Amino acid sequence: MPWATSPNPSTVRAVRRPSASRSSGKWTSRKRRNMPRTSLALARNLETSGMDIPIVALCGMASDSASWHGMPVDRIEVPRGPTIAAMAERIITKLPPRFALCGHSMGGYVALEIALREPDRLTALALICSSATPDTPEQYAARWALIDLALRDFEMVARRLARALPGPKAKADQVFVNDLEAMIVRCGVEAFVEQQEAVANRPDYRDRLSSIVVSTMVLAGAEDRIVAPDRSREIADLVPSCTLQIIPECGHIPQWERPALVHSALDKWRNTATENH
Q1: pLDDT value of residue 277
Q2: What's residue 8's pLDDT?
Q3: Domains of the chain and any CATH numbers
Q4: pLDDT below 50 — which residues of the chain?
Q5: What gap in Å lies between CA 262 and CA 129, rounded to an integer?
Q6: Do 6 and 150 touch, CB atoms closer than 8 A?
Q7: 37, 63, 143, 183: which could form a disulfide with 59 (CB 3.0–4.6 Å)?
Q8: Which residues is 77 bridged to in the sheet?
Q9: What are the CA-CA distances from residue 12 to residues 43, 84, 115, 179 (Å)?
Q10: The model's pTM
Q11: CA dist., res. 67 & res. 44, Å (int)
Q12: What whole-number distance in Å separates Cα of residue 233 and Cα of residue 126?
């Protein structure tokens, strides 16, 4: 699939890589899109919980608040920055003294970075379809090929991703696919390229996961072809206080594809945030 595996050679003609291994230069978009007015993030309240500990959701790549619609979270951040570390630093400046984090996909990488930097402020952690491992060489090459393709025709990339991300059940729903494609297009090619570069060069967190001591929940889509469920199992094995739930009939966006199941899981998890307050 385009986000994590090697590209189809019939659709990607050239792989443009940075000059140095696993480092990226500055890409210049050939088409300007509407972008967020600030590079930091989008932050808004979805629900007022009345809790002292806010549940902060961190969006995945090419996602916005729509991807968390109806979920029991208090605030949403869209990570922006040239690296995962930079994304984390920018979000940390906006966080209250105590908080719980729920990160989806790329947002999970940022959540791990924040968890490792701010262990005394974090009360609970949830990761959805995320990973603690860096890209394989094949995934790394595929990611740069996708960047090149996005700079040439971002609408085409959005169409393909909208069909690659969900599982078969959600993909059969054309309204779902259309809404997903619209969100990707809305996020824009510049944000997409920046996020891809950051994810391509993300660190390996596995040897530090044992230091995460807060209650942690990991959710994975059973049919996720972008981040395999084994990556979630790996996190669950390495984080001391961690539970794992595999969502059936679900691809890479469980909170959209199986909202009732994810809502229930997050409701139970958020109780741990208050218990650890």
Answers
A1: 61
A2: 37
A3: 55-134+204-275 (3.40.50.1820)
A4: 1-2, 4-50
A5: 12
A6: no
A7: 63
A8: 58
A9: 35, 26, 37, 25
A10: 0.82
A11: 13
A12: 13
